[in-house]
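Comment thread on ticket #2218

A.B. wrote:
> Attaching the input chain for the structure job we discussed in standup.
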Amino acid sequence: MAGTDLTAASRLCRGRVDSLTDQETGDASQLEPLLEQIDNEIDQFTADGAYDGYPSYDAVIRHSAGARVVVPPRTNAVERPNAQACSQRDDHTKCVQADGQLKWQVGTRYGKQALVETAMSRYKSVIGPRMHARSLCAQQTEVAIGVAILNRMLACRRPQSVRYRASTGETK
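C.D. wrote:
> Ran it. Output below, let me know if you need it in another format.
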């Protein structure tokens, strides 16, 4: 099997890997444990700005040396000083500074991230925006059940929608 695209947050909806933590734990700090759950090489890792930083890039590259990391750099991002070789993050930073954020998004196909945001929005609208369980263990079970429900719903397919156009003739 060729590589796998890993998009942050899609790990939850696709049931591939997951990590549910308390509100004090940052997303990026969980990247390495999440990557350890994946046996295959990753072709591309796409994430939101919370993952911007060399530790995230380095974790992905350690897992899959040929992986492409697509994370929007912060507006105040600067290139790594004394870098031995050109890094992906430095390339993203240069591109955004030279061409702008929108052109960078098109060039890197960052728009895939919107699909993940849509999936998380769907989860929150169908299952609910907050947890009901109090303990972390019970919350992990709650999320697992919610993901299973959402995946089952998505497996049933979306309805086929057809645009209806009213006739342009006279009405009686």
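A.B. wrote:
> Thanks. Noting for the ticket: The chain has one domain: 4-155.
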